[in-house]
Design goal:
Structural class: alpha+beta
Strand content: 15-25%
Distance between the termini: 19 Å
Number of strands: 23
Largest sheet: 7 strands, mixed
């Protein structure tokens, strides 16, 4: 519930109270010409009935305002992510900071990684929760519109000025129509300077509203054995493995902090899934190595009409999926139709095609992609309902990689699970997935762009950062992502290892569940913003690779607003703000807004 609604209910209670007081107060002196008794006095039964109705209404209002009381909880992630190294330890540091500022926070680990992401998607993390975002393309739209733009159900009618951003479970029930409308405008403008100005304005609005607490951007460190060459970190996160070699070996073993969720990229949002699918599957465009510039991949080129509402893509010929079937126009249409239409037989109800909905405006009639039409066997045309500035950047995203239609038809709802893996056109083929342990890939000798340099890739799950570095020292793995600060310093000073960084196209943040009544008050949110010592967290857990975040957009992306005046670390000010908000003794318990109910 928004603050205005809470205030409305409180005013209603005050009005009811005043009516009761008025009814009980002494009668006013008679007027010179008083109305007749029959007109001035209501029947006693009618008065009693009205008083009873008022009392019942007051009770209902009081119940709506109060809601269920729960402990103030900070949920932390069960796996290390590039935007949050050592999440448990960072959460403990945050809790200590918050305790100094009047917040008594209970820490909670909410299940494994898929469970945690599911609870976040369903809006059931009722408190503060740690999460982050790694950009999937170099356009600001991928950060801001994905999280704060209009959802399909908000777009009622043909006039965008009349659309209203609704609270959304996936984003902690946050809603800001002014922000969403500016993001819509930015998505359709062809002029980059105008778009950039809108994104900078949105960043200031989100800051002033304390919509979330931006914690850090991380120039993610990757550590390799000196025997490894050719690994290409990608700003978007799905690094290129096909150029990697290991001296004296035909297998490259890479250590990662968590397992993949699923290997059908259309139905996941986590980078550990994309790390695997990025080697097996390919989109029509991809990103130039080491950059966010979209370049042709399975499409040789895509050309727009003058209005940028039609994009004609010429497809690469002679390419085969790993199962031996042909890549062609029919396979492109099969994939896009599957994502687009909820009545498609392979758009399963149990799966959430989250990225398609938010990058292309929704499914069915809401999608900005009206249709994908076959021109000939190796030409398709994307018909859009409106221009879309980041069209090519969206096209190149990992989740829009093309899977074999035959593989999906055969596996059905099990496509992407450990028993089936994924079937694409990429440099590596899927071999085996041992859940919680490893994924094994083999070189595709017939890859259209040349066979990869190393025969086998093994992605090994080692959840603990220190244990992962020990495995590197022991020679069990040859590369890893993220290590504790002390191990990074050791690697930097050693001839046996070297550190390579992935540019910081990411932001770790602390989100509020706006289902919590207290979090609906911007004074309380600002008190949180002044309570966290981000510089201390960065020094202890990110080292030289982290930087404090003032925007959701990292400095690497145009649209980042350098003019934002950051929140200072000031626990005394937090205490003052809490007192001003009505919590002079701090917060240890919070209230759930009964008008916001997650779906079962």
């Amino acid at each position: 519930m928004k603050k205005s609604k809470v205030l409305y209910l409180l005013l209603a209670m005050l009005l009811l109270a005043s009516m009761v007081l008025a009814a009980c107060s002494p009668a006013a002196p008679e007027a010179e010409e008083a109305p007749e008794a029959e007109e001035a006095e209501a029947p006693e039964a009618e008065e009693a009935e009205a008083e009873e109705a008022e009392a019942e209404e007051a009770e209902e209002v009081e119940e709506m305002v109060e809601g269920e009381k729960i402990p103030l909880t900070l949920y932390y992630m069960p796996v290390t992510r590039f935007y949050y190294p050592s999440p448990k330890e960072i959460a403990e540091g945050m809790a200590a900071d918050l305790a100094n500022a009047g917040f008594d926070v209970q820490l909670e680990l909410a299940g494994d990684w898929p469970t945690y992401l599911g609870l976040r998607r369903e809006g059931k993390l009722n408190g503060l929760y740690m999460l982050g975002w790694g950009g999937d393309n170099g356009d600001p739209d991928n950060f801001l519109n994905y999280f704060f733009g209009f959802a399909p159900e908000d777009k009622v009618g043909d006039d965008p000025a009349a659309w209203v951003k609704s609270p959304e479970a996936r984003e902690g029930w946050y809603a800001n129509t002014d922000v969403a409308y500016k993001l819509y405008q930015a998505s359709i403008l062809p002029d980059q300077a105008e778009r950039e100005a809108l994104y900078m304005e949105v960043e200031q609005m989100l800051h002033d509203d304390v919509a979330r607490m931006w914690i850090a951007h991380n120039n993610t460190p990757l550590v390799f054995s000196s025997a490894v060459e050719g690994y290409i970190p990608q700003p978007v996160g799905a690094d290129y493995f096909e150029f990697t070699t290991v001296e004296g070996a035909d297998t490259f073993v890479f250590g990662r902090g968590g397992d993949s969720v699923q290997l059908d990229p259309a139905v996941v949002t986590d980078s550990e899934s994309f790390r695997v699918t990025g080697q097996v599957l390919e989109p029509l465009y991809q990103y130039e190595p080491g950059t966010t510039n979209p370049v042709p991949a399975l499409a040789e080129e895509c050309v727009a009409n003058e209005a940028s509402t039609e994009w004609t893509c010429t497809l690469r010929q002679g390419v085969k999926f790993h199962d031996g079937t042909d890549f062609n126009a029919d396979s492109v249409i099969f994939n896009y139709d599957r994502w687009h239409y909820t009545d498609n037989p392979y758009h399963f109800e149990s799966q959430v095609f989250e990225y398609y909905e938010y990058m292309w405006g929704g499914t069915d009639d809401n999608s900005i992609i009206a249709s994908v039409e076959k021109v000939d066997d190796y030409t398709v045309k994307f018909m859009l309902t409106d221009s879309l500035a980041p069209f090519l950047a969206n096209l190149a995203m990992d989740m829009f990689a093309i899977s074999s239609p035959a593989a999906i038809e055969t596996a059905g709802e099990d496509y992407g699970l450990p028993g089936t893996g994924a079937v694409g056109t990429g440099p590596y083929t899927f071999v085996e997935w041992i859940e919680g342990d490893s994924v094994t890939l083999a070189a595709n000798a017939d890859y259209w762009n040349g066979a990869p340099a190393t025969q086998n890739i093994v992605m090994k799950v080692i959840a603990d950062d220190s244990a992962r570095f020990l495995a590197l020292q022991a020679g069990d793995i040859q590369g890893l992502e993220q290590a504790v600060v002390e191990d990074l310093q050791a690697a930097e000073g050693s001839d046996e290892f070297y550190v390579q960084t992935r540019p910081a196209l990411n932001t770790g943040y602390l989100a509020f569940s706006y289902r919590v009544v207290e979090f609906q008050d911007p004074l309380v949110r600002e008190a949180f913003a002044h309570a966290i010592n981000r510089e201390g967290l960065i020094e202890n857990f990110y080292g030289a690779y982290g930087e404090a975040a003032t925007n959701f957009l990292p400095p690497l992306i145009w649209g980042h607003n350098d003019g934002i005046e950051d929140w200072t670390y000031d626990p005394e000010l937090s205490l003052e703000l809490l007192a001003e908000a009505g919590y002079p003794d701090g917060l240890s318990e919070v209230t759930l807004d009964p008008s916001i109910t997650p779906a079962e």
